[in-house]
Amino acid sequence: MPRRARVAVLCCKYCVYRPDQSCNHPTGAWLYDVELARPKRTPTMAQEWMLDRAMTARSTCSQCLRRYYFCLPLRTLGCCDPCARGYEPSPDTYFASTAPVIRRLAA
C-alpha cells in the first residue's frame, strides 16, 4: 500500500515563528498530493435511502408535517419556527406537496 505523500504543512501564525517546535493548535493541517488520492465511493441505493429518511426526520415539522429545505431546530423548539411563533411560512421554504415522493434522495 503506497504512502500518502505529504506536500506541505499549514501552520498558524504563532507556530511559523517557532520552527523548532511542533504546531499543536487545531489550525495546523497536512496538505496531501491530489494525484495520489483515491476516488470517492458512490453510495448504494440503500445508503441513499437511509440518508433520505434521516434528512426527512430532521427537516419535517412534527406539528404541521411540512418538509422544509433545511434542518429544523427540533431539539430546542420541537417544531418549525412558523408553528412556534404562529405565522404562515413562505411557500419557497418547504416542499409544496406532503405526499410521499418516490426517489427524492438526499445524496
List the helices and strands and how they pair.
Elements: E1 6-10, H1 13-16, E2 29-32, H2 45-59, H3 81-85
Antiparallel strand pairs: 1-2
Total strands: 2
- What fraction of the residues are assigned to beta strands by DSSP? 5-15%
Query: What is the strand arrangement across the widest sheet?
Result: 1-2
> Shape from CA axes?
elongated
The residue fraction in helices comes out at: 10-25%
Q: Which residues sit in consecutive blocks of at least 5 with pLDDT less than 50?
A: none
* Rounded average pLDDT: 79
Distance between the termini: 30 Å
State the order of secondary-structure elements, H for helix, E for strand: EHEHH
> Which structural category fits the helices and strands?
alpha+beta
Number of helices, counting only DSSP H or I runs of 4 residues or more: 3
Rg from Cα: 23 Å
* Main beta-sheet annotation: 2 strands, antiparallel
Which keywords apply here?
two-stranded antiparallel sheet; elongated; 107 residues; alpha+beta
